UniProtKB/TrEMBL annotation:
This is LysR family transcriptional regulator. PANTHER family: HCA OPERON TRANSCRIPTIONAL ACTIVATOR HCAR (PTHR30346:SF0), TRANSCRIPTIONAL DUAL REGULATOR HCAR-RELATED (PTHR30346). It holds the Pfam family LysR_substrate. It comes from Pseudomonas spelaei. InterPro entries: LysR_HTH_N (IPR000847), LysR_subst-bd (IPR005119), WH-like_DNA-bd_sf (IPR036388), WH_DNA-bd_sf (IPR036390). GO terms for cellular component: protein-DNA complex. Belongs to the LysR transcriptional regulatory family. It comes from the Bacteria. Residues 2-59 form the HTH lysR-type domain. The keyword Transcription regulation applies. Keywords: DNA-binding, Transcription, Transcription regulation. GO terms for molecular function: DNA binding; DNA-binding transcription factor activity.
Length: 302
């Protein structure tokens, strides 16, 4: 295996084409440098330099070998930089799980943007999934972080949940519905219509919040068709298949045929949680948490 130190000596002499100047740059005496170059030539099996009493020049083999030697040293330097970043938590891989309704929020997009700008060497993988599966995926290491609307299951002590607050729910109704002409609507009014939710077996935290809301208010919930993504639910509303309760951020989906209306009920909210492993959080997870906390504090000040 080639000695990296000898390659550095070769590169310096090739740049200077003068053993004396190269020795000064390397903080070496000239005789040891000459011996190291001769040893490298012996290892390679060819001469790198043509030397006279006045001039030093690269041989044809030396010129051909030079870009490879330079590439090796550049890769070593890059590896050293990456190793340092991995050690201090500014490089690596981070898997982030999220539910579809959260992806539309400003908090989500702004946090991703701020984290990517601060840690450009981190490969961030985004995985959309249902709230019910996020806790287990964080616990077993498939995900590093989960953005969920469901608290961890009772007794699941290996997952920690941090509340990011609550998000108001709004009504999504067909634009030709009588409800669309009102300034706000009530749950009592919505209960007369089929309610479009995620499938019952999907494990949606939003479903759970809505079902609890109806129960607290003593209102019947008329199940309508279901969609596995928030965009599908809005498309069903546009098709006149029922109404939906969705987080405020969903209003960014400006589908033709859908009108969003505020709810008169003050307790119509869905929680937003960030899930991490309770112990052994990586430096990258801590860095992401610091970014999301900063974004959350900025939101609270506005």
């Amino acid at each position: 295996m080639l000695d990296l130190r000898k390659l550095r000596y070769f590169l310096t002499v090739a740049e200077e084409l003068h053993f004396g100047r190269a020795a000064l740059r390397l903080h070496l005496a000239q005789p040891p440098l000459t011996r190291q170059i001769s040893a490298l030539e012996t290892e390679l099996g060819f001469r790198l330099f043509d030397r006279t009493s006045r001039t030093v020049s690269l041989t044809a083999q030396g010129r051909s070998f030079l870009p490879y030697a330079r590439s090796v040293l550049e890769q070593v330097e890059l590896a050293e930089v990456i190793a340092s970043k991995l050690a201090n938590g500014s490089a690596g891989q981070l898997a982030l799980g999220y539910v579809s309704s959260i992806a539309l929020s400003d908090l989500f997009s702004q946090t991703i943007q701020a984290f990517a700008q601060r840690f450009p060497d981190v490969q961030l993988t985004l995985v959309e999934c249902a709230s019910a599966s996020l806790g287990s995926q964080v616990a077993d290491g498939r995900l590093d972080i989960g953005l969920s609307r469901l608290s961890p299951q009772s007794g699941q002590t290996d997952v920690q949940a941090l509340s990011l607050g609550e998000e108001r729910l709004v009504a999504a109704v067909s634009s030709d519905s009588p409800l669309a002409s009102q300034s706000e609507v009530s749950l009592a009014q919505l209960s007369a219509y089929p309610l479009i939710l995620f499938p019952a077996d999907y494990g949606s935290g939003l479903n759970q919040s809505i079902e609890q809301l109806y129960r607290r208010n003593g209102l019947p919930l008329r199940p309508g068709p279901s969609g596995r993504q928030i965009t599908s639910i809005i498309a069903l509303v546009a098709a006149g298949q029922g109404v939906a309760l969705v987080p405020e951020c969903t209003q960014s989906l400006m589908n033709k045929g859908v009108t969003y209306r505020p709810l008169a009920d003050p307790d119509a909210c869905a929680q937003l949680l960030v899930l991490t492993r309770a112990e052994g959080r990586s430096l990258l997870v801590e860095a992401f948490m610091a970014v999301i906390n900063k974004r959350l504090q900025a939101r609270q000040r506005t």
